[in-house]
What we know:
The protein is an alpha+beta fold. It has helices at residues 2-7, 11-26, 34-41, 48-64, 86-96, and strands at residues 31-32, 67-71, 77-81. It is built from five helices and three strands, in the order H-H-E-H-H-E-E-H.
Amino acid sequence: MNNEITSDTDSLQREFVVEILRYLVAHPKAKDTINGIGKWWLSRTVSLEGRNKLSEALELLVSRGWLISRVSPQSETIYSLNENSVDEINKFIERKA
Length: 97
């Protein structure tokens, strides 16, 4: 995972990955859509280009198994923490500190 995030992603996407993971470790029961994540979980306003990078970051975290995505018929995709991955996530965050 470390190589995926450091080599295959750009700076903004990496920042989103780390910020999302830090938020979820602090708020493990949090669940939200991409709009809510951009508004509440991140420390900055997300531009249109940033929204694309945020979407890519979320999909990367889902593909890694660190986030769970659920599609609801009434709303957009909802993202949440895969609580089985907390130890691995904490190790990743420690390396980024």
